[in-house]
Amino acid sequence: MNRKTLVMPAVAGLLAPLLAACGASEESRAIVVGTTDQFTATEDAPAPLDPAFAYDTGAWNILRQTVQTLLHVPRGGGEPVPEAARSCGFTDKASESYRCTLRPGLTFADGTPVTAEDVKYSVERVLKIKSDNGTAALLSNIDTVETKGDEIVFHLKTPDATFPYKLSTPVAG
To answer: Which CATH architecture has domain 57-172?
Structure first.
């Protein structure tokens, strides 16, 4: 194919968006990048981006980008790997005790250190609130949570092989 034949369509293709942008009128519209969902605090949803209440796609898309969890599922899937945790795993053969050790140096936005007690508080808060929206159902198999230094131990009511995946969701953020 002749090069001259390809040059004109290529130039026209490159100039078309530029020329279209020059023809803007008073009725130009902004390009929306990201979500167009609106989140409003109501009596039924007093905190639409609170992991203890939010269990809809729009809120979870935001929470997945803004809260840190003990584990996360790597791109492309697979088993959860540590995020805020240095390590996590079942510590008994019955898969009823799950232990995570926090990474050193974790802090909140204000610089306050994150402790195992903070993680325990967050998980127990979700269970205590027991939102009708369904988030507490993901953690309902937790019997008790205990801390030992920088470790969090989740004692489960029954064996649950999906528990690491649950800890990688915003409800456990």
So the answer is: Alpha-Beta Complex (3.90)
